[in-house]
Amino acid sequence: MIPSTARHATIAASDFGQPPPTHQTQRARPLPVRPLSDGGEPDGTRTHDPLIKSQLLYQLSYRPTTEALIRVRGAGGQGAKRLPLAKSCNAAYMRRMENRKAPSQIAFMKMHGAGNDFVIIDSRGRDAIVTAKLAQALGDRHRGTGFDQLAEIIDSQTADFALDFWNSDGSRAGACGNATRCVSDYMMQQLGRDALSLTTTRGTLHANRLPDGRVCVNMGQPQLEWSDIPLSHAVDTLNLPLPGNPAAVGMGNPHCVFFVKDAEAVDLTVEGPGTEHYDLFPQRTNVEFAHLIAPDHLRMRVWERGAGITLACGSGTCATVVAAHLRGLTGRSVTVEVDGGTLHVDWRDDGVWLTGPTAHVFSGTLTPAFLAAL
Fold first, then answer.
1. Average pLDDT of the residues in 265-285
2. Do domains 106-210+360-370 and 247-349 have the same CATH topology?
3. Rounded distance between C-alpha atoms, residue 306 and residue 270, angstroms
4. Is 313 known to be catalytic?
5. Does the annotation mark 176 as catalytic?
6. In angstroms, rounded to a whole number, what is the distance separating the alpha carbons of residues 267 and 361?
7. Residues in a beta bridge with 247
8. What percent of the chain has pLDDT above 90?
9. Do 73 and 81 form a contact (C-beta atoms < 8 A)?
């Protein structure tokens, strides 16, 4: 039985690959085009049946060059006539349907800071959409876009915007200095300003653009207590009970810093994973290896938690300078050479400032097929 609100129209039988009725067709008055109902369908169209609805959606969205057809019953149901569904009704119907479901396509940017590369998704004005499964799929450098970290921009009630960070293995990153600088550069362009504020799990941070184009961000004060880093139990954080006598520093995420004779001689694939998963670090840890070039100059390489070897790590660069200063190796303003370029760290009274270059490489869109496969 066709519902009373929709019994004046059905999809033509021929649209299902069946021959139309052979009885004598009676000329009928054309059905006037009707506005959309509260349910999102054109009034008078039988779309309560899932099969019928799927056929109508096919007509409306997958055959845009062919007019969608409906069968209009005549008086007494004796005959029918095929009429085009109005284009205005078609467009309005599709808009209503699109607003009801999750985004079928997601725009993103690819950026990097000193070779530390990121995917940036701007979710302002909507709910956050990144999941562990999406982050892991996108982080695949062969089947996704590849990245060291993913940053999602979301709305903030207390700052210009907020950021969530994900690692390429689908885990949460906690903090990411170079991604924060990259997104801040993008947002300053969007807002037409050279300074802004943002929120992360570290609280409210401040960023600005220097006259030479580099972007700096205040990463906040370092976390030096064992429980804040965090470590699994109380130890001397500047002299951890591990081979190599590393130091532990928190920058919103944990870091284990080794000072060595030659950072370039360290095999990160051997030394990194074991330290990352050492039981002293309940949340795992980032691992840095650095050597002294001068009292204001360090060479550093990094194994990142959840990402592996990366060309740079902003929070790791900050943690390395903090540990170097507390060990008496450097001052508080230090240039750091990383595999992907040069960063500068200045530990001031108001926090640890990280400065360096940023680059917007390209923008793109994730396809519906990619998203549907997640």
1. 97
2. yes
3. 15
4. yes
5. yes
6. 29
7. 257
8. 71
9. no
Q: What SS3 class is residue 130?
A: coil
Q: What is the mean pLDDT of the chain?
A: 82
The whole-angstrom separation of Cα 119 and Cα 310 is 14
Please give the CATH topology (third level) of the domain spanning 106-210+360-370: Diaminopimelate Epimerase; Chain A, domain 1 (3.10.310)
Beta strands in the chain (DSSP E): 9-11, 69-73, 80-84, 106-113, 116-122, 149-154, 161-167, 195-200, 203-209, 215-218, 247-250, 254-259, 286-294, 297-304, 308-310, 333-338, 341-348, 351-356, 359-366
Are residues 44 and 5 in contact, defined by beta-carbon separation less than 8 angstroms?
Answer: yes
- Domain segments of the chain: what residues? 4-99, 106-210+360-370, 247-349
Amino acid (one-letter) located at 24: Q
Q: Which amino acid is at 121?
A: I
User: What CATH homologous superfamily does 247-349 map to?
Assistant: Diaminopimelate Epimerase; Chain A, domain 1 (3.10.310.10)
Which residues have a Cβ under 8 Å from the Cβ of 5 and sit 6 or more positions away?
37, 43, 44
What gap in Å lies between CA 338 and CA 342, rounded to an integer? Answer: 6
* Alpha carbons within 13 A on the beta-carbon side of 216: 16
Average pLDDT over residues 70-98: 42
- pLDDT one-digit tens code per residue, 236-259: 999 999 999 999 999 999 999 999
From the candidates 182, 216, 313, 318, give the one annotated as an active-site residue.
313
Collapse the DSSP code of 81 into the 3-class scheme (helix H, G, I; strand E, B; otherwise coil) and give the result: strand
Residue 306 belongs to what H/E stretch?
Answer: none
Contact criterion met (CB below 8 Å) for 341 and 78: no
Torsion sign, CA atoms 176, 181, 184, 185? negative
- Among the listed residues 176, 216, 256, 318, the single catalytic one is 176
- Helix 314-326 to helix 177-191 angle, to the nearest 10 degrees? 120
Contacts with 122 (C-beta within 8 Å, 6 or more apart), sequence order: 107, 109, 153
